[in-house]
């Protein structure tokens, strides 16, 4: 009886009607009771977000796709040009103006791809290694100190991190070259460059970019992997111990397979982040070898070339959405 | 004597080695931060002569004074204040707007709820880069360019936090709401006085990530703000060109940007680490 009372009062809770016996009947009463007031009340809760969502997400999304079929300088009247913007991007030979966009897109995409292909595995494999080491430490106090130190750089902005490494690897006075000079080892990044091991085809900036991407990127995945590892049932390891498995086998046969979800998650998120790379190269690049697509899109916005910029953004977006679709599926499975 | 206590514990050589390795790695991880702060405590003059060893002078806060007073030619103090205002405002508004919406989707019943919510979910698949240029155009046409609102308002369109908060709300027992309803509390009172206190952990997590995201954003402020009115992070990009002359000043500016974040981290590590696990969907 008391239960029923509660349900009638709580007419706005859909889950309350799950009850097998009274469910159908209650549902009808609920519908009748749902008043205009109720709708208005809900609007106050979800309304503010929906307004911002419409202005800064929904409208821009439609607008962005439409804009890539127009030629527009962001001031005058947009002119419909069909697939012309895309043609400009994909035309390999042609007028100087055409090859300009072609180069911006494909060289930008190349740099973006280089970053993604190197950085994504880097910030999965190394954090995995750290997570294994940290989880093996028995003293929990020490473990959390180590964890805190390794995570700290993840909080800093790309700009801060890049400035630090611009200084560390400064050619004349930077501590890294200084250090390799004092111990007389030909090994600093500049030294590698002088020795011809690193050539213009692999600009040294890339090496430093990957070093600081690693420095500031291990934290997040390390935490995710550590908490995943601590959730693996100990009985699996005990069984393996009985079979006489060594640590290596246990890692490959138990730990990794049990972390499937987290590995997939960090791969997908890493790839999405990689394709969006902007700050790392904007702060630490400057030559055509490592100017990424996002940087080129920003340059086009600053030049008010909205149409081609939108077309490039749309193409990059299409590549990224393949990976966000996977992420979406994973979230759906969890929801 | 008990046979077990008599058994001598073997010296944990494996553990010691492991700890040494970790200390080594952590030292490498600290060196860049330490170097940043150490460099900023010198003056620019200490690094002027190329190739010569620089004179080790006593550490000084002079460079910080120089940088924050704007004597180095860039309004670092202004940038810092902008960053602080924008980050705080974004955080407050995001927590308010997103928790309101999350309550709506978790606890209220209204026409079209399923449809709206699925729509929101699907849009999470849309990569931000597609919206970048139109957002820029919209902000310009609303005359928001070069105001702090250009940095605050677009962030409120995000959907991810609503999911996170909504998910967390499901762990709050329905009985609490029902009891409040019997007592005649309105939905707003229930939200403010019953639900919000129950979901503080997730709110803190959302707040921290919003603050960090806003504080660290580089691309968007560099587009919509003029050079003398940037946020600190975007301002640092303008500073990097001056590396030849002002190494200490630049490291001081970098420290000004890093230290507040590191201080927050010291006091709220738990929430941050929990937040990472939460958003990656490990903890249910």
Describe the structure.
- The complex is a heterodimer of chains A (335) and B (284).
- Chain A is an all-alpha fold and 335 residues long.
- Helix content of chain A is 73%, strand content 1%.
- Chain A has helices at residues 2-9, 23-33, 36-67, 84-90, 96-136, 140-151, 158-168, 175-182, 189-194, 204-230, 234-242, 247-258, 260-275, 279-284, 293-302, 306-334, and strands spanning 70-71, 79-80.
- In chain A, strands 1-2 form a two-stranded antiparallel ribbon.
- In chain A, a hairpin with a 7-residue loop joins strand 1 (70-71) and strand 2 (79-80).
- In chain A, helix 5 packs across helix 10, helix 13 (260-275) packs antiparallel against helix 16 and helix 15 (293-302) crosses helix 16.
- The two termini of chain A are 33 Å apart.
- By secondary structure, chain B is mainly α.
- Helix content of chain B is 69%, strand content 0%.
- Chain B is built from 14 helices and no strands.
- The longest helix of chain B has 33 residues, at 247-279.
- Chain B starts with a helix and ends in a 5-residue tail after the last helix.
- The relative contact order of chain B is 0.13.
- Chains A and B meet through helix 1, helix 3, helix 5, helix 6 and helix 7 of A and helix 2, helix 4, helix 5, helix 6 and helix 8 of B.
How would you write the strand order of the largest sheet of chain A? Answer: 1-2
Shape of chain B: globular
- Taking the alpha carbons of the first and last residues of chain A, their distance comes to 33 Å
Number of helices of chain B: 14
Secondary-structure-derived class of chain B: mainly alpha
User: Which radius of gyration of chain A do the C-alpha atoms yield?
Assistant: 27 Å
Strand share of the residues of chain A? under 5%
- Please state the average pLDDT score of chain A: 80
Low-confidence stretches of chain A: 1-24
- Report mean pLDDT of chain B, rounded to a whole number: 84
- Report the oligomer: heterodimer
Percent of residues in β-strands of chain B = under 5%
DSSP E strands of chain A, number: 2
